[in-house]
TrEMBL record:
It comes from the Bacteria. This is SnoaL-like domain-containing protein. It comes from Actinokineospora terrae. The lineage of its organism: Bacteria, Bacillati, Actinomycetota, Actinomycetes, Pseudonocardiales. Coiled coil: none annotated. InterPro entries: NTF2-like_dom_sf, SnoaL-like. Residues 7-100 form the SnoaL-like domain.
Length: 101
């Protein structure tokens, strides 16, 4: 999978709440650092996304920028708790796996 296809799978899986599929494209040692917290490892990242998904109704991708292994996704985060929020996600992909978010 290309980096763009990998990140597309990430968002498609998140929106479908298919966390098994989402975890398959996370590297075992993936790291997440962002305003919503930090996570280390595929299991911890999955747990964080699953928890967030309790209030997320949609992550509408508006645009995706690809520069080699780096993919920036601009999306609108829809939740049950607040108006839609414009959000950016930077992912680094190696060999079809997300290694950093």
């Amino acid at each position: 999978m290309t980096p763009e296809e990998t990140v597309r799978t990430y968002f498609d899986s998140w929106n479908a709440k298919d966390f098994d599929r989402l975890q398959q494209i996370l590297a075992d040692d993936v790291t997440f650092q962002g305003p919503l917290g930090q996570a280390n490892g595929a299991q911890e990242c999955r747990k964080g996304i699953e928890g967030l998904s309790a209030i997320v109704t949609d992550a509408k991708v508006r645009h995706r920028f690809v520069d080699g292994p780096d993919v920036l996704t601009w999306f609108e985060l829809h939740t049950t708790q607040a108006p839609p929020l414009q959000t950016a996600n930077w992912s680094h992909v190696v060999d079809g796996e997300v290694t950093r978010i």
